[in-house]
Design a protein that fits this description.
Helix content is about 40%, strand content about 20%. It is an alpha/beta fold. Helix 2 runs parallel beside helix 3 and helix 6 packs across helix 7. The two termini are about 20 Å apart.
Length: about 190
C-alpha cells in the first residue's frame, strides 16, 4: 500500500501576522523551526525514503530540518509551490480587502469561481499538485512532501472527491501532517495533525 506524507511548512512571521506570504521567500520563524524539529522527531520510524518540497524558502527550510533529523535527501518540485497571486504577496488580509476588495469576497465565498487575470486558480494549483503526487505514487516508496496550505487543501479535496467550493472546510495548521494511502484505485486521506 503506497503512501505519501504531506506537511504544511512550519510557522512563519507572515502566518503570525496574518499576511499572505504568497511566493515570497520568507523563512520560518523561530517558533516554526522548533515546531518542525519536533515533527521531524515524530516522523522517525515511518520508513520515509526521501523528501520533496516546493521551491520557496519556507518549504525548503522545513524539508532540510526534517531531512537532517531523518538522514534523508531533499529535492524540490515546482509543482508543490504556492498559488500565484503576485499582487497579494506580503499584504495583510485587511490590506487585500482595502486594495482588492472586489476580489477578496470571491476568494472567501466562491473559491472555485476565483479568477484574476495573470494569476492561478485553485483548480490550476490542484491540477499541478495532483500530477506531482501521482508521479510519486508510481514510485511506490514512502515520500514526505512539504508544501503550502492552498496546495494541501487542494490535494485533500481532490483525493476525497470533494469540489473546490469545499476549500474552506479543510483545516490544516502549520506543521500538520496529512497521510495519503493508495488503496487500489482510491486514496484514503488522513488528517493526522
Amino acid at each position: 500500500m503506497p503512501h505519501l506524507y504531506l506537511i504544511r511548512h512550519g510557522i512563519t512571521a507572515a502566518n503570525q501576522e496574518k499576511r499572505f506570504a504568497g511566493r515570497s521567500n520568507e523563512p520560518l520563524h523561530g517558533e516554526g523551526v522548533a515546531q518542525i524539529r519536533e515533527l521531524g522527531e515524530r516522523l522517525r520510524g515511518r520508513g520515509i525514503e526521501r523528501i520533496v518540497t516546493g521551491p520557496l524558502a519556507r518549504t525548503c527550510q522545513t524539508g532540510a530540518i526534517i531531512g537532517e533529523i531523518l538522514g534523508l535527501p531533499v529535492t524540490t518540485d515546482d509543482r508543490f509551490t504556492e498559488i500565484l497571486l503576485p499582487h497579494w504577496d506580503g499584504l495583510t488580509k485587511t490590506a487585500i480587502r482595502e486594495r482588492f476588495g472586489d476580489q477578496y469576497p470571491t476568494w472567501l465565498g466562491n473559491p472555485a469561481g476565483f479568477r484574476v487575470p495573470g494569476c492561478e486558480t485553485i483548480a490550476d494549483v490542484q491540477a499541478r499538485a495532483v500530477a506531482a503526487m501521482e508521479d510519486l505514487f508510481v514510485k511506490a516508496a514512502p515520500v514526505l512532501v512539504v508544501s503550502h496550505l492552498i496546495v494541501a487543501r487542494a490535494l485533500v479535496l481532490h483525493y476525497r472527491g470533494q469540489p473546490i467550493d469545499d476549500f474552506r472546510t479543510v483545516e490544516i495548521a502549520n506543521g500538520a501532517l496529512t497521510i495519503f494511502d493508495r488503496l487500489g484505485d482510491s486514496t484514503r486521506v488522513t488528517l493526522a495533525g
